[in-house]
Write a structure and sequence with these properties.
With about 120 residues, the protein is mainly alpha-helical. The protein has one domain. About 40% of the residues lie in helices and about 10% in strands. The chain is built from five helices and two strands. Strands 1-2 form a two-stranded antiparallel ribbon. Helix 2 runs antiparallel to helix 5. The chain binds zinc ion (2 copies). One zinc ion binds next to strand 2.
Length: about 120
């Protein structure tokens, strides 16, 4: 029974791999479509941070546009503290009115990418 064997093999292959489930952005609490998924270091890598959190690309970009790495490492190193910041609250209120996959192209001025 070829069919049976093949099925078994496929099951074994898929088994240990964790299926990608819906990821919700801890900043704006909307679902993150895969192409918009960005990993953010809650404590910047340059400050020894290791753990990352998935955010919308646009939420991620906003964080780095508003805060430098020192501020992120010292104070804004959790999604909660980021969300409490008035500038982020303004952004969250705005981005919530947009589709999950919304992404505004980076304007020239903030394209000068700070290392992440
Ligand atoms: Zn980041
Ligand atoms: Zn988001």
């Amino acid at each position: 029974m070829l069919g049976k064997i093949r099925k078994k093999m496929i099951a074994a292959e898929i088994g240990p791999i964790k299926q990608v489930e819906t990821v919700v952005c801890p900043i704006c609490e909307r679902v993150i479509p895969k192409p918009q998924m960005d990993a953010h270091h809650l404590i910047p890598k340059s400050k020894g941070g290791k753990s990352t959190e998935y955010l919308h690309r646009i939420c991620h970009r906003q964080i780095h546009a508003l805060f430098n790495e020192t501020a992120l490492a010292r104070k804004l190193n959790t999604a909660e503290s980021l969300k409490e910041h008035p500038d982020m609250q303004r952004f969250i209120a705005w981005v919530k009115t947009k589709p999950d996959s919304f992404y505004q192209r980076t304007s020239k001025s903030d394209r000068i990418k700070k290392s992440d």
